[in-house]
Amino acid sequence: MLAYSLRRLFQSFIVLLVVGLVAFSMFRFVGDPIDSLLGQERTQSDIERLRGELGLDDPFVVQYGAFLGRAVQGDFGLSYRQARPVAEIIAERAPATLELALVSAGFAMFFGVVLGIFTAIRRDGFAANAIMSVSLIGVSLPTFLIGILLIYLFSVELGWLPSFGRGDVVDLGWWTTGFATGSGLKALILPSITLGLYQMTLIMRLVRSEMLEVLRADYIRFARARGIREKSVNFRHALKNTLVPVITVTGLQLGSIIAFAIITETVFQWPGVGLLFINAIQFVDIPVMAAYLMLISVMFVAINLIVDLLYFAIDPRLRADRSGGH
Amino acid sequence: MSEAVLSIRNLTVEIPTRGGILRPVDQINYDINRGEILGIVGESGAGKSMAGNAVIGLLNRPAKITGGEIWLNGTRIDQLEGEDMRRLRGKHIGMVFQDPLTSLNPLLRIGDQLTETMLEHLDISRDKARKRAAAALDEVGIPAAAQRLDSYPHEFSGGMRQRVVIALALCAEPSLIIADEPTTALDVSVQAQIIALLKRLCRDRGTAVMLITHDMGVIAETADRVAVMYAGRLAELGNVRDVVTHPEHPYTDGLMGSTPLASKGLKRLRQISGSMPRLTAMPEGCAFHPRCEFAQDICRAEPRPKLNGGRSACHFPIQQPAEETA
Ligand SMILES: Nc1ncnc2c1ncn2[C@@H]1O[C@H](COP(=O)(O)OP(=O)(O)OP(=O)(O)O)[C@@H](O)[C@H]1O
Ligand SMILES: [Mg+2]
Fold it and tell me: Looking at the CA of B53, which ligand is closest?
């Protein structure tokens, strides 16, 4: 277990280094930072002085190392557009994205697992078949289209829910939350569904197929032969075994929710990190782009590690080498 | 009342398919008495498992009982459904499957699987159930039983797992055990131990056993009586000694000839030529006639030979040789 964890940690470290390299290279390939920092009226000595100060004459590896060193401390430099520290801008925007991701992940997990179990247990029922057919639509419609359809139906036609923004938020100093006000909560509904729908369908289909597979296993048959009641067979014996493989995929899906938030945030003008990134691309705001890239990759790597640990927690067979089993 | 724990009368199992109705179990009859071990033999596909599954109410759709009766301790059970049948399983009929590696739920401690079964069927407290679980493991020969309650299935070897499975099948003290090839998946070296264990436990408790196997050697050493199945029908039924030493049905004779038996010395092994007819192409009359060296016209015509209280379903049973002198 320890050796395995160390190996995974090492792999994660390598992944982050590579992403860092990509982020760092963006600075070099997308224009000369001197151009954007110094105006039209610059002298050769100005340029050289700045190059020296910024360390642009140092060897590549040294520059890369310095970049990583600053990144680890949360220093991604100044935004070209807003001339403020990138870390500060992202910290402002992060709560919006994280709250949105949290609610959509909860929505996707809850309904994905519940509907997956339902469609597996009632696999020949009318309702289960109807859900499966509708879910096909959920997988094949692009996110932005779902968002626009929801806006059309619930904002334009019915006027029940807002079509853009976060509603009223409460500022806690280090965090802004939409959970505390009615309009904040209402504003979360449509974007969360839009963002979570695809993941929900995926989780549902996965849970269903895993569960069907497990229900065919010998130990389920043996549990039935021992007279264990159906509820217990489904939810004690089958569900636990179903969740083992589901956890990985679900974990990765949650990671991708934050990445996919870009589209949803754009459709709903949600003031989160994704929208910040889209705007940064329009203005070639490299420091913001680089920081976003690195944050997303850290998130993926962290989720991966957590998923691995969950695996150990749930499946005793994987724990075997720790207990020195047989 | 008779002494029979299980009485099967004209039991028929059918599978509707596009090509017509298949009859994997076709009007079979037998009784198993208290404390008696009835061996069921026959080549692969003869319907042995199907008959066992019919008794415990675990036929896989679309197979279902379409005729005959099953009586357990004087109660008719073939028409029970759902909850009623479930309460019977484990409590009155136990089952042991072929593969101990897949029969146990990998994510549940074996102590939990045992107590779960007992709490389902017996009116005892959780503490009491745990004590009895330890006793049950001890009884099937698991060393340090009380400590092993918290072990997971993967921490046991195959033979030990089959012992756990037997403990599970017997823990609510059923009056009938159906053992479907309980040793086929095990090492030759542990097969004899498992069979001896099963035999001892059932003798001690007076449990009736339906022992399904390919292995005539196991039958000869374990069973009191034996039923020979061929293509879903009963070919021969009698005391093990009689059937083994003087088979009446030519198929049984062939089966004995192709099994090396210590008691018969090392005779040349014969093989029955040809193969069992498929259920989709059952011959008229006796199902065995295409392979039978004694077949006459009457064997190819309806009505097919039946057991009718005798030992074999054959128009020309092999005559008992003149009494051997030792
Ligand atoms: N769903 C099905 N459709 C068609 N035929 C089936 C189906 N299920 C089982 N059968 C047939 O039913 C027959 C009886 O099978 P069964 O499993 O009882 O045989 P068995 O005697 O236990 O054989 P084995 O020794 O291999 O376990 C077989 O010929 C099998 O092909
Ligand atoms: Mg079988």
Answer: 1
